[in-house]
Amino acid sequence: MISLQQPHLKVGAMSHPGEKREINEDKHRVSSYRQKSKKDRIVVAIVADGIGGHQAGEIASEITVETIIERINKDGLDDPIATMRSAIIEAAVSVFGAAEQSADFYGMGSTVAMVCVIEQKLYTSHVGDSRIYLHRHGKFRQITKDHTWVQEAIEHKIIDEKDAQDHPRAHMLQRAIGSAEPPEPDSRLILSDREGDADSEKNQGLLLKAGEKVLLCTDGLTDLVKDEEIQLALVEQSPAEAVQSLVSLARARGGHDNITVVILEVPDDWPYETSWLPRRLFYFSVIMILSFIAVIAVAMLASWKFGLIPWPLGGGPTPTPPPTKESASAILSALNLFFS
User: Fold this and answer.
1) 103-118 pLDDT, tens digit each
2) What number of other Cβ atoms are within 10 A of residue 297's Cβ?
3) What DSSP element (H or E) covers 270?
């Protein structure tokens, strides 16, 4: 993996401790690479929300992000889903090991949401309730599923979705970095509520198009800002402007938690992966048509020059005698001269 200074996507990223906490336990990273083997351009974005009092949450989220980045640098992204999975599991083991070494860090943990955009293709993985959203075709939707008690209760019809936000167990995680048993990273990329898990996993490698946006965030944003408000910011503002306005809005509404937002946008001059095919077919068709016209024109010119087609000077059509061996040879000679 070769580090790049300039990403091939538009990027906005911002993190703030909020209005109630002195320490920001959120961590994020946006890194750009070029893959040695395939020369693909890559953007890796990670958001982690630390869990634990004192400075433990801050340590857990930092270990999570750093471990994942180190693993990606080491292994590359020839198989992005496998690499992300192993990197997250390694981060979970590292966080748990660090917690076991110090009483101050005992019980610390973190969420993580990460994306890899390899040229045009989107890959995702996450653990916990930090989220990934996608804005495409004018629609905005969460493409991850929270690993919380409340989300499982909704799926089992124990509570209604409208009651989830203010539920006392709203932030009770069912899966997190730092547990004794490493969590299984979630590789579902959910594009429809009707999809099964296997279908969602098949969406990995989603081909992004010009103007589409991917947003990663911690619950410090989504607890206080509605999806419709996030979508409006994405539509009306650049990534750099949108992250600032969304963080400011969450802070204005109390900012009771750390707030982290990362936005990736596909530029308007995006080189579509399959765009070469229609262009080449068009150019090939034009060349073939022009070549056919040229052949016909040369054949007619040669026929007229060698007297095979008398030029009509007036009156009715002049009958054309049948071609001889000599006339056919003359036509072939003229064609060979034209294409030589």
Assistant:
1) 889 999 999 999 999 9
2) 11
3) none
**Closest to 327 in 3D by CA, of 297, 311, 303, 300:** 303
The CB density around residue 170, as the number of other CB atoms within 10 Å, is 17
- Return the pLDDT at 162: 76
Separation of alpha carbons 1 and 33, rounded Å: 6
Nearest one of 198, 250, 195, 196 to 222, comparing CA atoms: 250
Q: Domain limits of the chain?
A: 2-273, 277-339
pTM value surpassing 0.85:
no
DSSP string, 111-147: -EEEEEEETTEEEEEEESS-EEEEEETTEEEE-S---
Listed as ranges, residues in the chain with pLDDT below 50 are 272-277, 313-316, 318, 338-339
Counting beta carbons within 10 angstroms of the beta carbon of residue 181, is it exposed (0 to 12), middle (13 to 18) or buried (19 or more)? exposed
> Which of 2, 184, 179, 187 has the alpha carbon at shortest distance from 81?
187
Confidence at residue 171, expressed as pLDDT on a 0 to 100 scale: 81
- pLDDT tens digits, 136-176: 999 999 999 999 999 999 888 888 877 777 787 878 999 99
Beta strands per DSSP E along 128-242: 131-136, 139-142, 206-207, 213-217
Q: Which two tokens stand for residue 286?
A: 């034009």
Which CATH architecture does the domain made up of 2-273 adopt? 4-Layer Sandwich (3.60)
Rama region for 282: left / alpha / beta (φ>0; ψ in -120 to 50; rest):
alpha
